[in-house]
Design goal:
Helix content of chain A: 55-70%
Strand order of the largest sheet of chain A: 1-3-2
Structural class of chain A: alpha+beta
CATH architecture of chain A: Orthogonal Bundle
Oligomer: homodimer
Distance between the termini of chain A: 31 Å
Largest interface: A-B, 23 and 23 residues
Shape of chain A: elongated
CATH superfamily of chain A: Winged helix-like DNA-binding domain superfamily/Winged helix DNA-binding domain
Number of domains of chain A: 1
Low-confidence stretches of chain A: none
DNA sequence: TTCGATATATCGTTGACCGATATATCTCGC
DNA sequence: GCGAGATATATCGGTCAACGATATATCGAA
């Protein structure tokens, strides 16, 4: 799993969000350093839904503009936790290695 | 930068290694969980050399088999350190986020 | 009325990654 | 002496996530 997908799952970890909201949250989360474009987002959303990691929470029409909210599935949360542990282990390894000099 | 490339740089962080040695070190480092295939390795080596992140250290012929040793450049080490910090920040964020529940 | 933000969607391209395959030599066990 | 597996480098083609560009539509602010 690459960074954009990881960030999308992470953005959904506290509550359901719609696509654009995920974009904003990912930007906010990363302190503005990571930006996900729409081309990345909607493709990833489709893949994640097909994989059963996220699902449609609800669909709203607000001010004539549709908003499609997604939420993490239980499985999606599990995947996110595992991925976080995997990444944590790798980073820990790197820090340990780079400290020896 | 994706995991395989990150691991290759990390494997070279303590001393020069030849291609196959990088494969073994990456496997060792990750506790056997991450495996880099030759198709990934040699392509990545070429890219990293072109980017100036690694360079040829020496070439040996041992037992009739060639061994091509690569080493991190100063720039490559810098990139590795930055990438580690970037990954660390992201993982820290994820852990913090997942702890709230 | 023009711009930027909000909101979703598609399209084509790129490029890292990956499995498979190839070649060649050495060592170990039988 | 022979085969298997480890050592070592290399290429090739396919896949797929990511990405930039573009499109559509609405709203509020300047």
């Amino acid at each position: 799993m690459q960074d954009p997908t990881f960030l999308i799952l992470l953005a959904l970890s506290d509550r359901p969000r719609h696509g654009y909201g995920i974009l904003l949250e990912a930007k906010e989360l990363s302190g503005g350093t990571i930006r996900i474009g729409p081309g990345t987002l909607y493709g990833a959303l489709e893949r994640l839904e097909e994989a059963g990691h996220i699902e449609l929470d609800r669909e709203e029409i607000e001010d004539g503009r549709p908003r499609r909210y997604y939420r993490l599935t239980r499985r999606g949360r599990g995947v996110l936790v595992e991925e976080t542990q995997r990444r944590d282990a790798l980073v820990g390894l790197a820090k340990q290695r780079l400290a020896h000099r």
